[in-house]
Input
Amino acid sequence: MPADPPSRSATPGSRGATEEALLDALETVLQRDGLRQLSVNAVVEAAGVGKPLLYRYFGDLQGLVQAWGKRRGFWAEVAGTGPPSHHKPDDQSFRQQIADELVASAEYLRAHPVTLEFLAEELTATSDLSAAFASAREDCRRPYLKTMLGDRRYLRRGNHRVIVIIHAALIYLAMRSRRSPNFMGLRLDTDAGWRDVLNMARELARLPENARN
Amino acid sequence: MPADPPSRSATPGSRGATEEALLDALETVLQRDGLRQLSVNAVVEAAGVGKPLLYRYFGDLQGLVQAWGKRRGFWAEVAGTGPPSHHKPDDQSFRQQIADELVASAEYLRAHPVTLEFLAEELTATSDLSAAFASAREDCRRPYLKTMLGDRRYLRRGNHRVIVIIHAALIYLAMRSRRSPNFMGLRLDTDAGWRDVLNMARELARLPENARN
DNA sequence: GAGCGATGTTACCGTACGGTAACATCGGGC
DNA sequence: GCCCGATGTTACCGTACGGTAACATCGCTC
Output
């Protein structure tokens, strides 16, 4: 005789509620234990739901991850400065926009640890899980990247590479900030330290004007 | 009746040979399957050695990793330009040295996928394995970092941050190159593309002189 | 109110893992 | 010749996992 079988899901007999519980549980487990500890059992336990329901509604843990990516969305349209790609031929303002978008992207990452988990996962394994996540992410990211790299005039002058290297550095530092308090003297675990990182990135992105930094 | 029990280790009854075989097997498995697939069974199978020997000689998979880090060494003294920290007060030559060391460090990483595996692992989990690796790595890296960041005069002018961001970007791109052919338009899977990345890093590191790039 | 599909739960299977006990075998010291 | 520690191998245990069959229950349709 189990003690409390009826006290499980708030909305008793609703498929949608169960799906939401599983998606929430996925997020919970990822934030709490990291992707290495992610497992079917952990998710269904956190969701307070029977294991077969996960397989019935999402087919698989990979399916659950894909559904999570689709419904929650992640790392898309994080640009903070107005409509995409509508910028004057003014170099300075365009560079400013690029810098702002770099910073906005990094702030988004820092605020969304689950996305960071998956980005890190892609570095360590080419599993079905990371592949599922990568495809969903690329779908979300494509318009953003187009905005950021779409200006041929800007790219031709080699600035593309500066953007890319700053972006790569910000991704790495954001991932690293989850578990390491610092990197080569930079504080990653405090808001102040992170503000330093972002300011540095902003300065580098606006580089051709002010070469001294 | 097994077919060939006596045809296992080349040097039959030597503890050192078995240890070497296990260390080699660790490296093999890491390079072949990645760190996510690393397990005691995989290592002993690749080494052609009984499982208890790993526990007897290294205590643990973590112990094997630590021993591997100690004996093989990794990501240490990769600086390519002469003795450490002996540079004239000439700014240009010092920046050149820094740029060379950044490039040398990145090339080292690219040539040592196992180190990349562990660096990526540290991003996804704070496991005993990654902790063991991190401590061993920091021991090796300390003098290198001292060379690279030890010059207070240089640091004071904010150049420290440029170095750090380039370093972070190179680490990320090196990790990413293992499983993703490109990143935001950069080719990471070819030597030519990687040369582009390194040249870009070199230019940025020598930035205060030539602001245009 | 009978039927039936959707929802939920229990219990189980096969597998792979980390780790260990028990048993063979070698090899040098006396 | 004998002994004993070191080396190596087999077989096993408990556990946790992914995945599924079987059974219970709800709720809507007609």
Remarks:
- Confidence is low (pLDDT under 50) at residues 1-10, 77-87, 209-213 of chain A.
- Residues 12-13, 39-41, 51-52, 55, 60-61 of chain A lie near DNA strand D (CB under 10 Å from a C1').
- The beta strands of chain A are 182-183, 186-187.
- Residues 182 and 188 of chain A are 5 Å apart (CA to CA).
